[in-house]
Design goal:
The chain is an alpha+beta fold. The chain has three helices and 14 strands. The strands form three sheets. Strands 3, 6, 7, 8, 9, 10, 11, 12, 13 and 14 form a ten-stranded antiparallel beta sheet that branches. A two-stranded antiparallel ribbon has the order 1-2. A two-stranded antiparallel sheet has the order 4-5. Helix 2 (about 35-115) packs parallel to helix 3 (about 145-180).
Amino acid sequence: MEPVKKQKRKINDKYTLMLIPHNGKESKSYNFRSSVIAKIGIVFYILLFFGIIGALRTSIVVYDAYASQHELAAYRSEKAAQEQKLADLQKENEKMQQEMAEISALETEVRKELGNNKQPSRGGIDRSQYMGQGGPLQADIKMIDVYAAQTKNLQAEMQQKKENLSNLLAQLKERNARLNATPDIWPTAGGSITSYFGGRANPFSGYGYDYHPGIDIGNDYGAPIYAGADGYVEFAGWFGGYGRYVKISHGYGYETAYGHMSSIAVSSGDYVKKGEVIGYVGSSGYSTGPHLHYEVIINGQDSDPLELIH
């Protein structure tokens, strides 16, 4: 029976808390049972546990808020960058469209000047990658993708336009070279025709048939004579009945010859431009008076100069 009594006494043990003031006043004491202290400890641990849980939850909420704020800042930064990229793409797209319109207008003008208003054939050209497509509504579409597609297509179209213009430029240069090589100008300063191309009466006897391979242009002695077109001087000097004579090769099958000069202003091998002075009117060789004998030879055949002169 003794152990039971001891256990009961231990459970019912009391504790006294005494408060003694330093100012000499009466001390106070408080009695507590051990069971009350145990209960207070349990409550304290419960409160401590819930406090720790609350602190953890608060920390998680704060961390989530911080992460959300950081994520929001990153999103805003990315959105601003995307908006700037979109604005740049739109600006570049509009500029390219303006340039494309100008290039197309330029191409049209060049074609008109060349007398070639037809657009190049589409045969053999794969335009499927940059031909326009679209519609009023599309699901899940982004303007940045629209501008990127437009820019890509415009770049491909612009490259095609550059190739077209390069070809047109080559045609233009070829045409200008041919025009510059065509003897189509009056070859002296003033004067008038005294004998035409082809059959005529003998200019010295006045009767009989004589073949004339060019035209005679009567003019004042010493009047300047001009190169009919660009070319290289094949010969410059005295040449039998032609007297003082110059022959020029212009390319594209064209040659011109000038006879009966009073003096020559060029030498063999010189390159001359259309309209450049190559000599002066005279009456050297077989001639009845001052004039220019002028010939045009096309692919080795004598031709009437008046068919080209305008």
